[in-house]
Amino acid sequence: MAEPAKNEEARLARLRRLLVLDAAPEPLFDAITKLASDVCGTPISLISLIDESRQWFKANVGLEGATETHRDIAFCSHAILDNKILEIEDATKDARFSANPLVITDPNIRFYAGVPIVVGEDINIGTLCVIDREPKSLNEYQRMVLTGLAEIISKALVVREDGINVIHAKSKELAAIIEDSEDAIITKSLDGVVLTWNPSAEAIFGYTAKEIVGKSVTAIFPPDKVDEELFILKKIKNNEHIKHYETERRHKSGKLIQVSVSLSPIKNVMGEIIAVSKIARDITQQKQLEQALVIEHERLRVTMDSIGDAVITTDIKGNVQYINPIAQSLTGWSAVEAKGLPLQQIFNIVNEVTRARCENPLKLCLIENPIVGLVSNTILINRDGTEYGIDESASPIRGVDGKTVGVVLVFHDVTMQRLMAKEISYRATHDALTGLVNRSEFESRLKVIVSESRGASMQNALMYIDLDQFKVVNDTCGHSAGDALLKEVSRIMQSCIRSSDLLARIGGDEFAVILHKCDLEQAMVIAKKICRSIDELRFNYDEHRFRIGASLGLVMVDKNCTSETSLMQAADSACYEAKRAGRNRVHLYFNDDGLKGAHREDVQWVSRIEQALEDEGFVLFYQRILPLNHQGLEHAEILIRMKDTSGELIPPNAFLPAAERFHLITRIDSWVIAHTFEWMKQNAESLNHIETISVNLSGQSLGDSNFHNYVLSLIETIEIDCSKLCFEVTETVAITNIAAAKNFIESMNKHGVKFSLDDFGGGASSFGYLKNLDVDYLKIDGQFITDLIDNQIGQATVRCIVEVAKVTGKKTIAEWVENQAVENMLKEMSVDFTQGFLKHKPAGLHLLLEPKGA
Fold it and tell me: CA–CA distance from 542 to each of 191, 266, 724, 850 (Å)?
């Protein structure tokens, strides 16, 4: 049993004043409790309030039906003794709790973490806690969120207490008003019996309170108005209000009185109508009171509706009347300091680009009375110089006569959102690894150059660069080494070109350069410098040392150029000629080169692919996809290799580009699927340890209706467990063929086939298209994973993808995981699966029949 808090009497008194014990559930507290359970990954979460003898649950997730326990056995009675989080990783190993009935019997608590709910000066009235039936511990992020949620509860209760205090004060004022009011103020029961009767009622109707209380209110009704009472009571019981109803009533002496009455239902704390309030008042005074109440009500309503953001209210002169805590934090001005100051003195806003001071929207709001918003790129400068990107709007506060009596300013911090938007825009036009312009942006700029060159005498040049021996580095040391090499080569090439030139990464190990206003002689000098500089590079990684080279294709861009597409093809052709001539050299494109050099090597691959399809020259490999935060069946991705004449295996990046270029990729996809189906059928009894087998599909296959029909025919003719099958398509392919992708996914879903969206998050529209694609897995783009430890934007992106996946019921897979630190961070982020060289390198498909660890 925990000892009482040192301020126990004050604590209990504060708890009673809050009027929260044994109260009905409230959506805010229920939502906070559910969020705490979700974030901390626990089945149980409670808001527990501690009184003299018990802990009572204000909100409850996971212990439905339970409302309270005895204080003596409550973990929370210990947690309120301190102002920091109390975390019990295993209650059975803690002497304070090992014999506790809540530990050794239902609900069998093993893990507990509780944060005190603090009101006032160190007065802890209860806790927000999370509970698990298994030992565990929270990470720093979960502790931070749990503490933050407890602070939200505390602030909500403080607001409640302020409201209660206001109500008590208002009640006293109201009693005085009723006593001294010149209006008759009456309450009556739902059957019309008078309950209270103020002095003005005595003066107006002639009956003393002693004479009328306990009798029917129809005593003051003329005979022809008695039916009105039935009409009034019916409306009141239907929770309707009667406003400014003009009628006649009878004085004790018998004379008729013209009155204007307002009637309202009186409710108890449960919202039940228990009586009627009636005011007979002077119409002029009532109108004045209404106006004052509407002004105050409107100011309070707009402010409270916006309380989740920063809020500032002003009077008609633009002087600050109220500033909430969030606005105080963003501006740097406290409520006491800001009160009465001109808004522009504390709300210092400038344009993010020009740094010019922004026009105060308050002026427009007061002059024109619209709802006014800030222009984009607005920056709020804090009193201490800190800058925040904000979105803001200003709305007029109007009286009942429609005149503006003040303004409410609502704004919120969008600094991180703007950074994310800039990052997404940057990623859409730049290569994530090297920071260079990507292919799409490069081709757009090349199109402009071609347009400018038509009819002009100036010359530009285009270079197509393909690294030699890059594959050796990747195959020997993995993607991390390849990525490091690409960054180094990018730096070298950037140093060889002029500031006016544009360097881009347009493929895996392919680059392109636009040499602006450059003649042939100068272009050749730059091209040879790049070739020589890369040739001189000695790349060291771990214990390995590599020498690479580069083949360059050079094309002049002049008034005779027809399109950027033909230019890229010509540069590609010249690059192939450079490779064919021995690599590590520059080849200048001439019209009589045609496309022979560019196509020669691809044509050779076409022949080999055709032969492999005819002679079973392909081999299936696989790579495991491993769960991070749970135990379960195994997952694997099917991979393909080609056998050469010596029996060596050729990786897919050598022949798949040619297959796509010459439209053979769908035949390869068909071969892989057919052989995978046959393998699954033959080994059906040995696949009980497998949950999902993923097969990649190309964009050509996804958009081919004949291919769709072929897959359906295989499903109908080859008996396999389709629930184990998962087709994997890249995000770009799916978005490009959105209609075909959606139709194919729907047709496959009918047979239980799953889908995985590969390279997810790399595009600017990832989340926008996700709602249109019913996929089961999101495979996070490897560009976010390779440098995850040092890239905070990448970390934020991965967390965002994980949250979206949770909301949409999808699982997440991180690819290219090559070191333990990255895997640990992914586990903390709640990514579901990982794939990469860290835990498994591709192997022959027959090894998949052996369960992992067997």
Answer: 92, 80, 39, 32
